[in-house]
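Hey team,

Filing this mostly as a record. A colleague (T.K.) asked me to run one chain through the structure pipeline before their review meeting, and I want the input and output archived in the tracker in case anyone asks later how it was produced. No errors, nothing strange. Just documentation.

Input sequence:
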Amino acid sequence: MNVLLFIAPLIVTLNATPLLELTLFTDRTQYWLGDYAQVFGYLYYNGSKVTDGIVSLEIDEQALPQNETVIFRTFTTGTPPTTQSITILSVTLTNEIGTPRSSIKRGNNAYFTTTVKNNDIANSININLTLTALDSASGIAGSTMQGFDLAANGTGTLTLPLYIQDKAATGNATIYANAFTNLPRDKGKALALEKSAKFTITDTVQTPPSSGIFIPPEPGEFATAFKVPVFQFGKSTIYNFTVYTASTYKGETVTAKKLIRFRVPDLNLDNTVNVQDLIVVAGQIGWTGPPGSIAQDLNSDGKVNILDLMIVARVIGWTKT
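Output structure:
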């Protein structure tokens, strides 16, 4: 009797290497409260920089209730993509009923009216509209978010309140409007190019701190920078922020995240920053040695001098609440 043997072929499935890669960096590993932090990164596809990509970014402060988001942004890596799901037509400082205004006093609710258009003529879309305000020193002045549905080929207008921090720097500020499928920390895709507008924060005249040196990104890169206002938070001597980024390109989605830590120069650990902390640093003026090997070398440059005193001086009056 003839017996036919059927041998099933062996199928081996290999995990394909993702073609899309997203990297994320900061200019330093640790910051002092009031420092200017730079965040930057690169988007690669099949080993080459993507020069027509779009990256969504979210920064959360871990100590605030529910990991409160303090910044939402969207960045292109060169030439903007040719098509977007929606278009943010405008964002404007207004009052509660949408009447335009030019300024807001810090420590109050500002209202921003945003108009968006659905570019899909056949399908409605749910968007997460976000607003982020940065003051004249690129300090975090406030942020907010709201989801809503936009009809096919429709235009919608939404007015949202946004509290302007009472310690925000006065002067020319910027509001950034963005739209995502989900939050960037949940792999949210940017639905539109970012829209921004200028407005003015008023109060007692205040000179913003130096904004540092910001190098504009090259094609295939994205970059931003921000400050944490010195007196905005007072619950801890260490503040942890998480930067989340996400990008979708040619059907692939990729994410990256990074921790940023800000410390308060409370050198004598008495939960306040005052002249006693200046004395701690002044006692080592002139010291040189391995960078950061003593606490008084606050900027880790291998010496103790007036630059270290300035790090303490700008936070004088800070108290843990």
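Quick notes for T.K.: Residues 20-263 form a domain with the Immunoglobulin-like fold (CATH 2.60.40.10). The first helix runs from residue 275 to 282.
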